[in-house]
TrEMBL record:
This is H(+)-exporting diphosphatase. Its EC number is 7.1.3.1. NCBIfam families: PRK00733.3-5 (NF001960), V_PPase (TIGR01104). It is an enzyme of class 7 (translocase). The keyword Hydrolase does not apply. The keyword Flavoprotein does not apply. It is found in: Endomembrane system. It is a multi-pass membrane protein. It comes from Corethron hystrix. It comes from the Eukaryota. GO terms for molecular function: diphosphate hydrolysis-driven proton transmembrane transporter activity; inorganic diphosphate phosphatase activity. Its main location: membrane.
Length: 753
């Protein structure tokens, strides 16, 4: 066991170090591409500028630098303002965590203080991850643009720049998350809880880490989502629909804000979201498995070992895209990205099996969720649970792709529905989203049943860990998409040769498809994480109970539990309504501002306007609206379980969590997939020629498709993804404050129900 202990620690620390070093190496590759360097060669310079452009290389370099700096400054100013608000929240909520846990533990200041410290560490790690992702994405987008030179080499260069930019974010976040989480746990063990009998308290203190990450993810997802979609909707409605100017046209005042939004919403927000999933799933598994003290530290931290070996798997698989099967033509792009997901999933299975056999004892026991009995576990049963999550995530991702990619029938049917106008497009799109939830929910149900049957609630937590085991690859692909989207926008604004935009659009289209797969992973993992956290919550209140009230878990047919089951089901709809309305209000402000500039300065619509639009005004609208509107939805999610637990008790919280989980997962899948399908239906129409049945750009069919895409923007990039955090945040918050809830009338709440 001692040999295993050292090896487990070495594996975890080595993986974190390797991930951070590999992120830095990829950054160095990206950094080698310079804006001016692309124009040092006369042939490449003329190809990027286009024939007869009339501008010198120095002029176009200056223009590219100007656009890059405008996007960078916009993203920097927004994240600075957002994180200033988040820092104030973290300071205040850290104090609240200390006070409420102190009350619940009858002023065990050690537990209260360590839980508060874990919360702050999780929050600031999440902020650091989001900020890092934004910096790398903005740094890489213009370098992707200038790498899009003619021929196969151009495909390879621009793909590799965008892919490596994603790898910087993916591996840095995984390495940082593992390092901080494990370093915190080891510090608590060495200095506070060296006795294995106290490891239950140690894991309870660690739950604050997941709570901190999830709180920042909430603000990042909601704030960033409102920012990006306000700019996107405003730019589309006034620019493309009313005035018929192309997407990302430099004459559109909202263009810079739209490109800024891709970085703060799709990169920083997604990074914080998936970091929160990693932290929460790990904390849930540690709390449920805290009875493993008799089997050593390596058995307790087996979930972190799974995440650690996943880093090495993702690193090896990344060479397929950059070295073994490099992209040389358009149709290589989507296959290169999809192979990343399939290969990482396939390679994880034997690696997890080996880790399970090596780090887990031949037989061990865990307390059952229901009844006073023990469940016997084996290394193979833990492997099966992790594998169910790994494979289930891929299945959900591929089903999501089927419903959102224009390579398949559902999106093509949606595009054809635009022939009869925007209304039929909306009807088809909503129906598509509802239908797309069927198979993923069935897959999740099988995973939950099988994992629970084999390893009780610990198995569900392992399935969540498994679904996130190739997180580095998932994040790489997620960040790749916004980088390519920005690269295309920069090419349009700099008026480079159309060939550049065609390349970046092809990269972006593949990124949209794989991003949809990533969203499927995120939703599926969020559902399993939420259920695992609920299991940890039930386990915790059973330990806290000294009577028979909670000996058999939670009875869902208790009147208060059943009543709050319905209330919990309502919360995701209230949250979605608030975030959708927030995007609508911000978009209205953006539309008015863009139209005001066009009305007051009609020359902006000329082919070559004498002066540029006021980009800063649109950036200010998105920034102020997102900071203002993100508070109410966040407060709803954070304070609903707190108030419920203190006033109505743990039975009410149990009903609230189950209702929220069941409603959130269905709503998140349907909204995300409807939005993704509308987006790709619009792209499918745009690819059509004017002589085809779909008529192509500028037609009435295209305008109907743009309306669907505009409505779908907050579906897929604001409300839908943020629902992942709703179910996770409510569950982890209830787990952290379980002792506080139990303090009031032994878990019956202030009203003693």
């Amino acid at each position: 066991m001692e040999e295993q202990l050292i090896t487990a620690e070495a594996m975890i620390l080595l993986s974190a170090t390797v991930a951070i070093v590999w992120a830095y190496i990829n950054f160095c590759f990206v950094k080698r591409v310079t804006i001016s360097g692309a124009f040092s060669d006369t042939g490449e310079s003329s190809a990027l500028l286009g024939d007869g452009d009339g501008r010198s290389a120095s002029e176009i370099v200056a223009r590219l630098t100007e656009i890059y700096e405008a996007i960078y400054e916009g993203a920097e100013s927004f994240l600075t303002a957002e994180y200033r608000v988040c820092t104030q929240f973290v300071v205040a909520f850290t104090i609240l965590v200390f006070i409420l846990i102190g009350i619940g533990t009858e002023w065990d200041t050690t537990r209260a203080g360590l839980s508060a410290l874990s919360f702050a560490l999780g929050a600031f790690t999440s902020m650091a991850s989001g900020y890092l992702g934004m910096k790398v994405a903005v740094f890489s987008n213009v370098r992707t643009t200038v790498s899009a030179t003619p021929g196969p080499e151009g495909w390879t260069r621009c793909f590799n720049v965008a892919f490596r930019a994603g790898a910087v974010m993916g591996f840095a976040l995984c390495g940082l998350g593992i390092l901080v989480l494990y370093g915190t746990a080891v510090s608590y063990k060495v200095f506070v809880y060296p006795n294995p009998d106290d490891w239950v308290k140690l894991t309870e203190c660690m739950t604050g880490y997941g709570l901190g990450g999830s709180c920042i993810a909430m603000f990042g997802r909601v704030g960033g989502g409102i920012y990006t979609k306000a700019a996107d909707v405003g730019a589309d409605l006034v620019g493309k629909v009313v005035h018929g100017i192309p997407e990302d046209d430099p004459r559109n005042p909202a263009t810079i804000a739209d490109n800024v939004g891709d970085n703060v919403g799709d990169v920083a927000g997604m990074g914080a979201d998936l970091f929160g999933s990693f932290a929460e799933s790990t904390c849930a598994a540690l709390v449920i498995g805290s009875s493993f003290k008799d089997f050593g530290w390596s058995a307790l931290f087996y979930p972190v070992v799974v995440s650690s070996v996943g880093v090495f798997v993702c690193l090896l698989v990344s060479f397929i895209a950059t070295h073994f099967r490099p992209v040389k033509k358009e149709r290589d792009v989507e296959s290169a990205l999809k192979i990343q997901l399939v290969a990482s999933t396939a390679l994880m299975l034997p690696v997890v099996y080996a880790a399970s056999k090596y780090y887990l004892p031949e037989q061990f026991e865990i307390g059952a969720a229901v009844g006073n009995r023990m469940v016997t576990l084996y290394p193979w049963s833990a492997f099966v649970c992790v594998s169910a999550g790994v494979v289930g995530g891929l299945i959900i991702g591929l089903i999501t792709e089927y419903y959102t990619s224009h390579s398949y029938a559902p999106v093509r049917e949606l595009a054809n529905s635009c022939k009869t106008g925007a209304a039929t497009n909306m009807i088809y799109g909503i129906a598509l989203g509802y239908k797309s939830a069927i198979i993923p929910v069935i897959v999740l149900a099988f995973i939950v049943y099988g994992s629970f049957k084999l390893c009780d609630l610990y198995g569900v937590a392992l399935a969540a860990i498994g679904m996130l085991s190739n997180l580095a690859t998932g994040l790489t692909i997620d960040v790749y998409g916004p980088v390519c989207d920005n690269a295309g926008g920069i090419a349009e604004m700099a008026e480079l040769d159309p060939m550049v935009r065609e390349k970046t659009d092809a990269l972006d289209a593949a990124g949209n498809t794989t991003a949809a797969i990533g969203k499927g992973f995120a939703i599926g993992s969020a559902a399993l994480v939420s259920l695992a956290l609920f299991g940890a919550f039930v386990t915790r209140i059973r330990y806290a109970s000294n009577d028979e009230l909670f000996a058999n878990g939670v009875n869902m047919l208790e009147p208060v539990t059943f009543a709050f089951l319905l209330i919990g089901g309502m919360v995701p709809f209230a949250f979605a309504a608030m975030t959708m309305k927030s995007v609508g209000l911000a978009a209205m402000e953006m539309v008015y501002e863009v139209q005001r500039q066009f009305d007051q300065k009609p020359h902006l619509l000329d082919a070559n306007p004498a002066e540029p639009p006021d980009y800063d005004a649109c950036i200010a609208i998105s920034t102020n609206a997102s900071l203002r509107e993100m508070v109410a939805p966040g407060a709803l999610v954070i304070f609903t379980p707190l108030v419920t637990g203190i006033i109505f008790g743990v039975n009410a919280v149990s009903g609230l969590l189950v209702g929220s989980l069941v409603a959130s997962v269905q709503l998140a899948i349907s909204m995300s997939n409807s939005g993704g399908a509308w987006d790709n239906a619009k792209k499918y129409v745009e690819k059509a020629s004017p002589d085809s049945a779909l008529k192509g750009k500028g037609s009435d069919i295209h305008k109907a498709a743009v309306v669907g895409d505009t409505v779908g923007d907050p579906f897929k990039d604001t409300s839908g993804p943020a629902l992942n955090i709703v179910m996770k945040l409510m569950a982890v918050l209830s787990l952290v404050f379980s002792d506080t809830f139990f303090y009031f009338n032994k878990g019956k709440g202030f009203l003693n129900l």
